[in-house]
Amino acid sequence: MATIEKRRSVNGDPHYRVKVRLKGHPPQTATFSTRSDAKNWGAKIETELRERRHSPATVAQRHTVNELIERYSKYHLAHKKVADQQARQLHWWRQRIGHLSLADITPPLIVQQREALTEVSDRPRSSATANRYLAALSHVFSVAVKEYGWIDQNPLLLVKRGKESKGRTRFLNDSERNRLLAACQANSNPDLYLAVLLSLATGARRMEILGLRWPQVDLTRKTITLLETKNGERRALPLGEQPLALLRERAKIRRIDSDLVFPGRYPNQPAQFRHAWASALEVAQIDDFHWHDLRHSTASYLAMNGATLQEIAAILGHKTLAMVKRYAHLSEPHTARVVNRMNAVIFGE
User: Fold this and answer.
1) What's the pLDDT at 122?
2) How far apart (Å, rounded) are the C-alpha atoms in residues 156 and 44?
3) pLDDT tens per residue, range 258-303
4) Positive or negative, the Cα torsion across 185, 186, 190, 192?
5) How far apart are CA 192 and CA 29, in angstroms?
């Protein structure tokens, strides 16, 4: 039903705000200078709502996917840490289904597009990547349901996600690690060794290390603080004696035009080490290894030295244990030793 509220403007003139509420429909509001106009409008909207002219299906027919993504991008996307990545994903959706109305978007249609994401003829993507595309669009449609009232349900919630692989668990064995560190130390780029050592010693992501700035480094407390992590939380990482000693030496010769620990050609851009890294891998004769695998190596070493999955997750900055379960088998010898010690105490074995 319609409710009318009398209000006054800054200069004291009265106006009337009418709101129409009807179960199953988003609220409709308008403001008029006279009560009679407000009352007439309220009665008209009530009639139209009862005749379902403002039903969710009708509203969905009036808005396109392009219009929805454009509004979402303007008011929601800019505040997300993965804005650039999701902007590319949403651009793909606009190209594929942007011209369609929201009423035309059905689970079967989304399934067709999911298949198109992984087709050989259309720049194939992995199931994990396709799932990220689906997740990006799903959030857009959730906002359309909860905030805009343009649709009454999110069709992507009915679409099954593709099965994802457990992820790489490639890590350096002792011989590979020694060869790689030696190759980095002998590399013509004087910063490569420290960058790789920090990655191995802390388990930080590549850009968390390369984008590291001196204000984040506390040589007294022996920690580095990661401010802009992937999951949006601050994380403090302890420094071992070897990387700490190298950082102290590095601090003595830091550049005055940049606060980056590893500045690149331009003061405000971090170094990338692409050629130096490739050269070090070649010299060390290490195949099928990426910089991100240094992070896997850290997690693997932690597991093999008795760290629990919870401890590994805390060090790597994962909110759940799902991402670190791949290392569970590496901690089995430690677990066996713990059980054996317990048995020896209880049963005298």
Assistant:
1) 56
2) 35
3) 999 999 888 888 999 999 999 999 999 999 899 999 988 888 888 8
4) negative
5) 62
Give me the phi and psi of 208, to 5 degrees please: -70, -35
For 185, the token pair is 């130390």
In angstroms, the CA 107 to CA 52 distance is: 24
pLDDT score, position 199: 93
Question: What's the CA gap between 297 and 173, in Å, rounded?
Answer: 8
Helices (H), the chain: 35-50, 56-62, 65-75, 83-97, 107-117, 127-143, 174-185, 192-202, 206-210, 241-252, 274-284, 292-304, 309-316, 332-347
Cα dihedral sign, 204-208-211-213:
negative
For residues 162 and 118, the answer to whether their CB atoms sit within 8 Å is yes
Rounded CA gap, 36 and 96, in Å?
Answer: 48
| 24 Cα distance to chain centroid | 34
Q: What is the pLDDT of residue 18?
A: 87
* C-alpha dist (Å) from residue 325 to 10, 40, 152, 169: 62, 63, 38, 11
Cβ–Cβ < 8 Å for 311, 328: no
Strand partners, 104: none
- The two three-digit tokens of residue 48, written as one number: 């139209």
Check residue 230 and give its pLDDT: 64
What sign does the CA torsion over 268, 274, 276, 281 have?
A: positive
DSSP 158-188: GSPPPPPP--------HHHHHHHHHHHHTSS
CB atoms within 10 A of CB 185: 14
pLDDT along the chain (349 residues), means of 10: 79 82 75 87 81 64 92 82 84 94 92 84 74 93 90 91 73 92 94 94 91 93 82 81 92 89 89 94 93 89 84 82 73 67 69
Say if residues 198 and 294 touch (Cβ distance below 8 Å): no
